[in-house]
């Protein structure tokens, strides 16, 4: 993460190619990691997703990308019930078939997300976060970090800005420039975060921050969660 740069006002203009770049970078790191794992590793529990195994999380992500590719967005899509059905539909698949579907999705979904006008940007961010969930379950370093972090932080700023999320000024240990997240219309004074990028991602996605050193002022941590946890 040395030399990472993240412009302060990236949320002002959507970059339609950004979700695809994030997914491509993560694909190139995550898929080889998964190909080298034993079957037992796919059965490990994922702390961030109670009741789900590594395989379940990967099947959920793969199914989500397939829905994007096939433009299947029926009522209730991505609800807990729909997610469970997607996972169940893949119950008889081999682990590597699930990885195959995931790899294809991470490769092909980018242009479709780009053309959706921002409606699916949060999906790309969420799938990247799930990759971090998997890394943590596997005991791999770099959960919610890695080469995709600069893209993820930029996308997080854009998503929170469009959603009118509470304003926050983040001074990141691992970035050259501060990051502004949420709605800076002036209706609410911005909260302040000082710490590293992965911890900020954890806070915004309801993941445990463990013993990470950070400062947060003007907002409670649970108010940041963009996924409603």
The number of helical elements comes to: 7
Helix content: 40-55%
Look at the structure and give the mean pLDDT: 91
**Strand-and-helix sequence, N→C?**
HHHHHHEEEHE
Organism: Streptomyces virens
Protein name: Maleylpyruvate isomerase family mycothiol-dependent enzyme
GO molecular function: isomerase activity
InterPro entries: DinB/YfiT-like, Maleyloyr_isom, MDMPI_metal-binding
Summarize the structure.
This protein has 229 residues and is α+β, with helices and mostly antiparallel strands. The protein is built from seven helices and four strands, in the order ααααααβββαβ. Helix 2 packs antiparallel against helix 5 (121-137).
Could you explain how this protein is built, in words?
The protein has 229 residues and is α+β, with helices and mostly antiparallel strands. Helix content is 45%, strand content 7%. The protein is built from seven helices and four strands; from the N terminus they run H-H-H-H-H-H-E-E-E-H-E. The chain has helices spanning 18-35, 54-70, 80-89, 95-114, 121-137, 149-162, 197-204, and strands at 168-172, 179-181, 191-195, 215-217. It has a four-stranded mixed β-sheet with strand order 2-1-3-4. Strand 1 (168-172) and strand 2 (179-181) form a beta hairpin. Helix 2 crosses helix 3 (80-89) and helix 5 (121-137) crosses helix 6. The longest helix is centred in the middle third of the chain and has 20 residues, at 95-114. The protein is globular and about 50 Å long. The two termini are 28 Å apart.
């Amino acid at each position: 993460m040395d030399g990472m740069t993240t412009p302060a006002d990236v949320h002002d203009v959507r970059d339609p190619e950004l979700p695809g770049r994030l997914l491509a970078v993560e694909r190139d790191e995550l898929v080889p990691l998964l190909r080298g794992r034993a079957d037992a590793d796919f059965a490990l529990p994922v702390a961030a997703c109670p009741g789900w195994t590594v395989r379940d999380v990967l099947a959920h992500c793969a199914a989500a990308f397939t829905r994007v590719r096939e433009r299947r967005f029926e009522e209730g899509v991505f609800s807990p019930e729909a997610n469970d059905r997607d996972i169940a539909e893949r119950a008889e698949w081999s682990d590597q078939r699930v990885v195959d579907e995931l790899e294809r999705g991470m490769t092909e979904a980018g242009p479709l997300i780009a053309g959706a006008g921002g409606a699916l940007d949060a999906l790309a961010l969420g799938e990247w976060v799930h990759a971090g969930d998997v890394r943590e379950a596997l005991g791999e370093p770099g959960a919610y970090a890695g080469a995709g972090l600069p893209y993820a932080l930029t996308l997080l700023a854009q998503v929170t800005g469009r959603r009118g999320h509470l304003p926050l000024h983040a001074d990141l240990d691992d970035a050259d420039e501060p990051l502004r997240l949420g709605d800076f219309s002036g209706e609410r004074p911005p909260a302040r975060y000082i710490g590293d990028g992965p911890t900020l991602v954890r806070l915004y996605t309801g993941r445990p921050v463990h013993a990470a050193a950070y400062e947060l002022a003007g907002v409670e941590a649970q108010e940041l969660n963009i996924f409603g946890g």
